[in-house]
Design goal:
The protein has helices at about 1-10, 10-15, 40-45, 60-65; strands at about 70-80, 90-95, 100-105, 120-125, 135. With about 170 residues, it is of the alpha+beta class.
Amino acid sequence: MAAPILRYLWPSLARGPAVPSSLPKLSSRSFSSTPSPNATLNQVLRGCRKPQRARHAVSPALSDTRAPQQKGVCLKVGITRPKKPNSGERKTARVRLSSGRMITAYIPGEGHNIQQHSVVLVRGGRSQDCPGVRYHLVRGALDLAGVSNRMSSRSKYGTKKPKKASVGT
């Protein structure tokens, strides 16, 4: 009775040694110097050989369609208060994506020009101190204008390079 269970749990016992005993056993983990022990019978019976659970997606509405960005229509623009140590007013928008899903997205940068029925481009990336906000709006795309008078990190905020002031002669 116990022999079939042991053969099921440890198939290497049923086959015998695959490598001659004179050769040193090579570990399957070549990066580790410590040997990898087999699981004990109690560990196996408790369920140590279950596969790891898959991680949940940071931006599920985009990962379901496997799209880096998606177009959407703003339904409501408002503010949310950040989590405990921070304070302020974070600008957010409730957006209906082209796939039909409703999400809350963060509007980056200072000031914005979107309102209800504006068409916006949504990318992934959560706002860490706003609960429930897992998406960002792309500045400078579709109806959402870039940040005005922005000098650094302009590409993140959809701002063109400022023109050089020409000296009058």
